[in-house]
Amino acid sequence: MSSKTVERLSPWLVTLACIVIWEIGVRLFDVPAVVLPTASSSFYAIWEFRVALWHNAVPTLIATLLGFGIAVVFGIVLGVFIGISKPVYAALYPLLVAFNSIPKVAVVPILMVWFGIGLTTATITAFILCFFPIVVNVAVALATIEPELRDVLRALGAHERDIVIKVGIPRSLPYLFASLKIAITLAFVGAVIAETVAGGDGIGHLMLVASSNFNMSLMIAGLIVIAAMAIGMYAIFAVLDSRLTGWATRGDIQYATAGG
Amino acid sequence: MAFIEIDEVDLIYRNSAGDEDDSGTLALQGASVTMERGDFIALVGPSGCGKSTLLKVVAGLIRANKGRVSVAGQVVDRPLKIVGMAFQNATLLPWRSTRENVLLPLEIVEPHRQQFRREKAKYEALADELLATVGLEGFGDRAPWQLSGGMQQRAQLCRALVHEPDLLLLDEPFGALDAFTREELWDVLQTLYMNRKCTVMLVTHDLREAVYLADKVFVMSARPGRMILERDIEMERPRTLEHMYRRETVELVQELRHHINIARSDDE
Question: Which pTM does this prediction carry?
């Protein structure tokens, strides 16, 4: 086997190894199923509860994607304004940082009062959890255009709008995609938190119910389904990123990263 | 009236905006330069003496606090519309091919901007022709990051010249290159200058570079910068590296170095 093949297979092999260790460990130490079920029974639970999981995965996915979609539009617009205007930056940035430092799970009960139980609350939670990295990355990309390049363009009679269109927006794409990969996984976190705290439909709620029934294998199955959805969405954006901004991996742009 | 007149210009950099008590940093004080259309001048001086600042003042990118700047008879009170600029950092856009980078000014400058889409093929041919004159024939489709540092600077010179500006402002364009590449590019720039007869202001740290390229060298004082010496370079063009080893050239470089050393020690 060439080293390339080993490199490509290694994540799958490690994942498989973890599952095997899990299976053997649980059997070897005779761990009770209410504490940790075996890997095989957890995967079997996905099949066993496929109808319930499907019915709850769909609302989770919808809330995640809606919240994420709103965050992308809102994040790009706000990021552009903050990135190109010093006064807007000065006015809004401290507010954003303050808002971002609030534990989002504490906001869910408030949203529940305002919007009730269900899709709206989950969507908004997903949105507030994931818009921050998008705003920050777009703003940073626009605010860090090389001053020399700005001078070159201004000396040609370029308007601020020309600079944003010709340089700012293409330059911000790798930053944007980096933030989208972070944001989509955060959006899942937001939707599941809301479902767990506020109830309604969704994987989060299903897991809460499973927890009250001590149905550990269903809880693990729920986790696996959430992880699979999040990895799938991440992969979509990773592929889009490398297709659209391949130049950046050879250029010298540094990403700013931001957590939620 | 001369093409460029810089008359007793003062420039203060404010350390923080809106602070009334802030006296700022005086970057230029009483700086004056006069040059005719088609002249090639070099500005040299101790680091931090305001050479780059003076270029920006001429381009209208920053406004002088005192004094008067005019280009082609017009007082400079806003960015001039068609100046070619090049810097030490090539700042080519990595998502564009080298050719598209060279074409960037034509997408901004009038009247090319209006007809850019319609005449794209013609402009692309123009860019390729220009790239060929600096030794980058066939590199138009390459991404800028596939080019070496020297090649990027050649492409940057093309970008600065593609719209046929009357005025070319160069801020240490070869400062980051190795000595051999730098000397090669002196010749590239000289050829471009001789073919186009535009007016050039070159800021440099390299006295040999200033002597090789310019018709006149201005030595600036330490900050706040003003002119302390104006020296004509009377060497026939095209100049070659061989000129640089002639005794009178070496003495000229020594003389300039001496003046800069004095300017630097005045600072301390």
Answer: 0.79
